[in-house]
TrEMBL record, chain A:
Keyword Metal-binding: yes
UniProt cross-references to Gene3D superfamilies, sorted A to Z: 3.30.70.20
Organism: Citrifermentans bemidjiense (strain ATCC BAA-1014 / DSM 16622 / JCM 12645 / Bem) (Geobacter bemidjiensis)
Coiled-coil boundaries: none
Signal peptide start and end residues: none
Residues reported in the UniProt entry to bind [4Fe-4S] cluster 3: C108, C111, C116, C150
Gene name of this polypeptide: cbcH
Obligatory cofactor(s): [4Fe-4S] cluster
Domain of life: Bacteria
Annotated protein name in UniProt: Menaquinol oxidoreductase complex Cbc7, iron-sulfur cluster-binding subunit, putative
PANTHER family: FORMATE DEHYDROGENASE, NITRATE-INDUCIBLE, IRON-SULFUR SUBUNIT, IRON-SULFUR PROTEIN
Positions contributing to [4Fe-4S] cluster 2 binding: C57, C170, C173, C186
GO cellular component, one term: cell envelope
Automatic annotation (TrEMBL), chain B:
The organism's taxonomic lineage, starting at the top: Bacteria, Pseudomonadati, Thermodesulfobacteriota, Desulfuromonadia, Geobacterales
Signal peptide: 1-24
Biological source species: Citrifermentans bemidjiense (strain ATCC BAA-1014 / DSM 16622 / JCM 12645 / Bem) (Geobacter bemidjiensis)
Gene name as annotated: cbcG
The protein, known as: Menaquinol oxidoreductase complex Cbc7, cytochrome c subunit, putative
InterPro entries membership: Multihaem_cyt_sf
Keyword Cytoplasm: no
SUPFAM superfamilies referenced in this protein's UniProt entry, alphabetically: Multiheme cytochromes
UniProt keyword annotations, A-Z: Signal
The keyword Signal belongs to this UniProt entry's keyword annotation: yes
Length: 302, 174
C-alpha cells in the first residue's frame, strides 16, 4: 500500500505548499507606493503642443533622430503612442472645440504597482524607490508580455536590432537625472510649466489645490492618483478624460489584483494536479482489472 | 505717455509714504525695454518692449501681481494681499525661481508643511504663461515660439531632424 500512502502525502504536502503561498497573495492589501516616490503632474490646460518635451527626451535618451523635425505639427493629425524611437509623444484633441485644441503628453506613467513588472517572468523591470519603473535589457528575453500587460499601451519594442531586440520606454530619466534628484529632461524644458516635478505626495496636494482654487478650469479628478493603484505621473484636465485619450474604464485596483488569485493557484496546480491525476489514472487502471495494459502485455508475453 | 507719467507719480508717492525709502528709487526706474532669455542656449536673447505694454495695459498689476502700487486685481490674492505694501522687487525673477525643481528647492518645499504658496511657478513657466496667456486672451500678440524668440544654431539642431531629405532613421544603425 506504499502507493496509497505516497499519494496521500503528495496531496497533503501539495495543499500545504499551495495554501502557504496563496495566503500571502490574498492578504497583500493595498500598496500606496514608496513614501519618497517622485512624480510629475501634467496640467493639460497649460500645454500648448510645442513638442519641446519630445525633443528633450530624444536628446537625453540618445534616441534616433526623428523622421521629421519636432516643429512638424502635421504629426497631430493622428493620435500616436510611444515607440522605441520616441519615449514620449504629444497628441492633440478637441481640435474643433472653441476651447481647444487640447494637448496631452503620453509616456510611461510609472505605476506604483506596475503591470509590466508583474507580467515579466525574468524580472527585467524594477520599481525604484524614486518612483521610476526601469528596465534591464540584459535579462529581457523579448517575450513582450509587458506590452500586453500595460494598461496604458506604453512599452515599445525595438525590432530593428537583430542581435539584441529590446523593450524601450520612458525611465523617468532615471540614470542621468532622477537618481541625483534632478527632474526629467521633458520637465526641465517645458516652457509653460505644464509639467510639475516633485514628491508624488506633494503633487497630489498641489493638484487638488489647483482644482479647488480654479473649479471652472479643471475637472474634479486627478488621473493617476488612484487608477490602477496609483501612478507617478498625474494628470489634470479641463476636458472629460476619455475625450483626451485616457481610458476611463481602468479600475483603481492594480493590474496584479486581476491575476493574483489566479497566480495563487499556480503552485496548487503544479503540486496537486500531477498527484491527483496520477491517482485517478492509477485508480481507474486498478478498477478496470484484467482489461488494463498489464493484462494485455501479459497476454502478449508468452 | 500720460499713463506712464501717472505711474511714476503713483509709484513715487507710494514710496514716499512707505518707511522703506529706497523703494522710491526702484519704482521710478521703469525700464522701456527688458532683455529676456539672457542665459538661454536654444533661443537668442530678445528685447521685450516694456513701454509699449505699459501703454496698452495701463494696469501694472495685470502682469506684476501684488507689486508696483496698483491694488491687487485677483480676488483670490486680495483675501490676503489687499493691504500689502508694494514689494521692493518687481521683476519676475525676484519671486519666481529659475530652478523650481532643483533638489534643494524640492527638499525645502517637502519639509515645510506649513508653506502656503507651495505651487509657485518657476521663472520660465511664469513668464510664458503670463505672456502667452494674455496674448491668447486678448487675441493679440504672438503665441508661437519663434514669433518672440529667434533660435540659435543649437536650437535649430535640437528641434530639427538633420536627416531632412537624407537617409531614414533605420538606415543609420548599420
Amino acid at each position: 500500500m506504499k502507493r496509497r500512502n505516497f499519494l496521500k502525502a503528495c496531496l497533503i504536502g501539495g495543499t500545504t505548499i499551495a495554501m502557504g503561498k496563496t495566503n500571502k497573495g490574498w492578504a497583500s492589501g493595498s500598496f500606496e507606493g514608496y513614501p519618497e516616490s517622485m512624480g510629475v503632474l501634467v496640467d493639460t490646460t497649460r500645454c500648448i503642443g510645442c513638442r519641446s518635451c519630445e525633443a528633450a527626451c530624444n536628446k537625453e535618451q540618445k534616441l534616433p533622430e526623428p523622421d521629421t523635425s519636432f516643429d512638424d505639427k502635421s504629426v497631430f493629425e493622428e493620435p500616436r503612442r510611444p515607440t522605441a524611437k520616441a519615449y514620449t509623444v504629444v497628441n492633440q484633441y478637441e481640435k474643433e472645440k472653441p476651447g481647444g485644441p487640447v494637448y496631452r503628453k503620453v509616456q510611461c506613467n510609472h505605476c506604483n504597482e506596475p503591470a509590466c513588472l508583474t507580467s515579466c517572468f525574468v524580472n527585467a523591470y524594477t520599481k525604484t524607490k524614486e518612483g521610476a519603473v526601469i528596465y534591464n535589457s540584459k535579462v529581457c528575453v523579448g517575450c513582450r508580455n509587458c506590452m500586453i500587460a500595460c494598461p496604458f499601451n506604453v512599452p515599445g519594442y525595438d525590432y530593428e536590432s537583430v542581435t539584441n531586440p529590446v523593450i524601450k520606454k520612458c525611465i523617468l530619466c532615471y540614470d542621468t537625472r532622477l537618481k541625483v534628484g534632478k527632474p526629467p529632461a521633458c520637465v526641465d524644458i517645458c516652457p509653460q510649466e505644464a509639467l510639475t516635478f516633485g514628491h508624488r505626495a506633494d503633487l497630489i496636494k498641489i493638484a487638488h489645490e489647483r482644482i479647488r482654487s480654479n473649479p471652472d478650469r479643471y475637472l474634479d479628478h486627478v488621473y493617476g492618483e488612484k487608477e490602477v493603484g496609483g501612478t507617478s505621473w498625474l494628470y489634470l484636465s479641463g476636458t472629460e478624460f476619455d475625450k483626451i485619450g485616457f481610458d476611463p474604464s481602468l479600475s483603481n485596483d492594480p493590474i496584479i489584483s486581476n491575476v493574483k488569485d489566479f497566480l495563487g493557484m499556480v503552485p496548487m496546480v503544479l503540486s496537486i494536479w500531477p498527484a491527483l491525476f496520477s491517482g485517478i489514472h492509477l485508480l481507474s487502471k486498478h478498477e478496470s482489472g484484467g482489461e488494463g495494459h498489464d493484462t494485455e502485455s501479459k497476454e502478449e508475453e508468452p | 505717455m500720460s499713463s506712464y507719467k501717472h505711474l511714476i507719480v503713483a509709484a513715487l508717492s507710494l514710496g514716499a509714504i512707505s518707511v522703506f525709502t529706497p523703494l522710491a528709487a526702484q519704482c521710478a526706474a521703469v525700464p522701456d525695454s527688458v532683455t529676456l532669455n539672457q542665459n538661454g542656449t536654444l533661443y537668442k536673447p530678445f528685447d521685450f518692449n516694456h513701454a509699449k505694454h505699459i501703454q496698452q495695459l495701463k494696469e501694472c498689476a495685470g502682469c506684476h501681481h501684488h507689486t508696483t502700487g496698483t491694488l491687487v486685481l485677483d480676488p483670490d490674492c486680495a483675501r490676503c494681499h489687499q493691504n500689502s505694501s508694494p514689494t521692493a522687487v518687481v521683476s519676475c525673477k525676484g519671486c519666481h525661481s529659475a530652478q523650481p525643481f532643483s533638489p534643494e528647492t524640492l527638499a525645502e518645499k517637502h519639509a515645510d508643511k506649513q508653506r502656503y504658496h507651495k505651487d509657485k511657478m518657476g521663472l520660465k513657466g511664469a513668464m510664458h504663461q503670463n505672456c502667452i496667456g494674455c496674448h491668447q486672451k486678448e487675441g493679440a500678440g504672438p503665441v508661437g515660439c519663434q514669433e518672440c524668440h529667434t533660435r540659435t544654431e543649437a536650437g535649430e539642431a535640437f528641434n530639427s531632424s538633420s536627416r531632412l531629405g537624407a537617409k531614414p532613421a533605420h538606415a543609420k544603425k548599420h
